[in-house]
Amino acid sequence: MRVVIAEDLALLRDGLTRLLRDNDVEVVAAVADGTELVAAVEAHRPDVAIVDIRLPPTFHDEGLRAALEAREKVPTTAILIVSQYIEQTYTAELLAGGRAGVGYLLKDRIFNVAEFVSAVHRVAEGGTALDPEVVAQLFSRRRGSAIDELSEREREVLALMAEGKSNAAIADALVLTVGAVEKHIANIFTKLGLAPSGNDHRRVLAVLAYLSRPE
Amino acid sequence: MTDAPTPTATDPIAPATLRLAAALVGVIAGAIVVILTVIWFVTTRGYYWPIWVVLPLALVTAVVAWVAWVLSSPAERTWLSLGVTITGGIYAAVLGCLTGVWALTTRSYFWPIWPVLGLGAVWVVHAAVVRLLVPHSDMHDRIIALTSTRSAAIDAQEAELRRIERDLHDGAQARIVALGMTIGMAEQKLASDPEGARRLLAEARGGATEALDELRDLARGIRPPVLQDRGLAAAVSELALRSPLDVRVQADLPRLPPAVESAAYFVVAEALANAAKHGGPTHIAVRLATSGPDLVAEVTDDGRGGANPNGAGLTGLRHRVEALDGRLFVVSPPGGPTVIRADIPFRS
């Protein structure tokens, strides 16, 4: 798998490059600002662009802008945004249009190397990887809606689904059988009034669309 | 808002409204005069008796126009000083009217001299009392100065907070993220490559120390601990020791309010940093003393000179010092020497 990294702090750029290479991910380019990112994506056509949301010159959201622009130019590129903070507005923008192959993670997630690398793979294959913090924020926005009708267990399953995890991964995390997970998901979809959809990625998008719907 | 009452400057009342009022009065007065003149023309047509209505109407119109003009002019004034101006105008109008009466009647002995002297005296006393009770121009200047130093202080604080946030993000936070990555990798390798894991953990240990150093530097940039614990003289002595240049410190100070000590400390710190960066000096002298109500912090270096008093660092210092009602002086002719001095009042 081939990735491009965009991160302005050399310490982190080098650390991330080393971490990925150590885990059999090829880093074809490591750049320090948005313009270079777009150019690198066009030149190398990587599977994923891993981008810090804050890049020069204003350190606001240049990373997100550049990543979206790069995806306009090379639509097969998946985007994984990393940040030191989570901002809800960016989540909405990233998920807009229901495109899969997106991720939004806090830099903390990188500390668990195996999980981070699997998230990178998941995003590259067209799945999603949302930080549990992001999902928690989406949940809290929907308080007082049908989410409250879900049981504790169902909410846990929904959260892990929203993070982009597969049935198997959810079963693993909650110590359930895959069959039990599938039953929970069917119930969730019924309670939320969502059409059941077979495709893993589609159903995540359905869940996220539901969660990020304005009140 | 503050407890002490502050005199407020007046806002000019909408000029259009005032002019409209004055115009209305003028029109009505004019209409009355015209009507009376027509009546006079049609009846007596001898002695122009309407003059006795014209005179008071002219007085009223003049007074209204005067008040309208004064209130609509954009100059900032307090109500007290406006009062002086307006009554002055009214007295003048009244005296003009009386002179008109004199011109139309006796015309021998200028009896209006008495009201002139009387009203004149009243007005002079009024103006003097206002000026004495309320040193109006001083207070006014002070308000303007305070407003501007306050907004400069707010801007400086904003810039400072942004700087701190960036330093935290790029410095300590980044180091801790790098630390986390290194430890995560070590964890991964523990079984398969223990030697590699050990090397990574050693690296992580170094990273932790660096993160702490970043945080210490940041704290010192905000409020140096030694300043808090032992005061300005001790903190400046430490600056002198840490500087690569030859710095002599002469200090004769009691403990002063923390904001004053902090501002003086940063003046000295910036001056030393500038000298080290640009001037190429060999000797720097720092003098800290009290002079009357002020703390004086003076840094003299024998370097090349040519410091820009409007550079970012010195401007920030100036705002900091002026926010405390102090003054910053920068004397730096090309060829040197450079003297940077802050006078900051420390008695509240």
Structure in words:
The complex is a heterodimer of chains A (215) and B (348). Chain A has 215 residues and is an alpha/beta fold. Chain A is built from 10 helices and 6 strands. Chain A has helices at 10-22, 34-44, 62-73, 88-95, 113-124, 132-141, 152-163, 167-174, 178-192, 200-212, and strands at 2-6, 26-31, 48-52, 78-83, 102-106, 128-130. Chain A has a 6-stranded parallel β-sheet with strand order 2-1-3-4-5-6, sandwiched between helices. In chain A, helix 2 packs parallel to helix 3 (62-73), helix 7 (152-163) crosses helix 9 and helix 7 (152-163) packs across helix 10 (200-212). The longest helix of chain A has 15 residues, at 178-192. Chain A is globular. The model of chain A has no long low-confidence stretch (mean pLDDT 87). By secondary structure, chain B is of the alpha+beta class. Chain B has 10 helices and 5 strands, in the order ααααααααβαββαββ. Chain B has helices at 15-42, 51-72, 79-104, 113-133, 136-189, 194-222, 225-230, 232-242, 258-279, 312-322, and strands spanning 246-252, 283-291, 294-301, 327-331, 338-345. Chain B has a 5-stranded mixed β-sheet with strand order 1-2-3-5-4. In chain B, strand 4 (327-331) and strand 5 form a beta hairpin. Chain B is elongated, with a radius of gyration of 36 Å. The chains are: A alpha/beta (215), B alpha+beta (348). The A-B interface holds A 9, 11-12, 15-16, 18-19, 22-23, 54, 59, 84, 107-108, 110-114, 116 and B 166, 169-170, 173-175, 177-178, 180-185, 187-188.
Estimate percent helicity of chain B: 55-70%
Strand ordering within the main sheet of chain B: 1-2-3-5-4
- Which protein chains make the most extensive interface, counting residues with beta carbons within 8 Å of the other chain's beta carbons? A-B, 20 and 16 residues
Shape of chain A: globular
Please state the structural category of chain B.
alpha+beta
Physical arrangement of strands within the biggest beta sheet of chain A: 2-1-3-4-5-6
| Tally of contiguous helical segments of chain A | 10
